[in-house]
Amino acid sequence: FIQMLRSAKKRDVLQLLRKAPEEMLPFVVETAVAAQSVASLAALSDFLDFSKEPKSLLEKFLYAAAFSPRPSGELLRLVLDKLDGKQLAPEVQETGIVAVGSLVGKLCRQKLCGLQQEVERGVETILAGLRGAKEESEVVIYLLALGNAVLPKTIPTLLDHAEEGPTAITTAAVSALRQFPARHISGKVKRAMRRIFHEKRKNYEKTCRLAAAEILLDNEPSPMDVINIVLAAKELETETATFLLLKVRNSLR
């Protein structure tokens, strides 16, 4: 079916979308996303009306885009165009932002970061949304998107939220930092993770502290980091301490 759509003309894909039985429509939308031909994406652009379509179909489209293994710049542009400047249901907006982060991350892994305007537009969409977010739940969604994008230039932003934000925000920011490969976990990142794990500035939620410890242990830990984490484990609940000691053992191996 995907091969057929890749060789079809826009009008044929559009007709298929318009005439598909209701129970088959999500499948046809997913397949058109997977085809990623110019014609199939143009047909989806004409067909999907984000102000009218049921939320379930729009989310299906966005999930299909987010999980695409090798997305194109055209697919990212389509998602951005559909999100741009529209009053959307919160669930659709959230799924869309997370999808943008996923697409940006995958395009950058294909070495297309500086070569496509869509990637820069996607990054700026996430960062502008983060700057303008007023609700805690909104901030968390944009941080999740940054975690999906895995862009080194966003690490300072993630560190600010990791240390200073309320519980949900700090946890989301530290979780986003965990996505980065070891070469981007600098001394500055490690110092921040130490402050969080050892609660140097304020109290942090257990999940956040564990994530900070994992970053330290998974990225060439120093002997002092290992010693201090083992010593701190004695003050923690049994389950948390056991988890940390297993991580230390795995690091030693």
From TrEMBL:
GO terms for molecular function: phospholipid transporter activity. One of its GO terms (cellular component) is Golgi apparatus. This is MTP protein. It comes from the Eukaryota. It comes from Circaetus pectoralis (black-chested snake-eagle). GO terms for biological process: lipoprotein metabolic process. Residues 1-232 form the Vitellogenin domain. Pfam families: Vitellogenin_N. Transmembrane segments: none annotated.
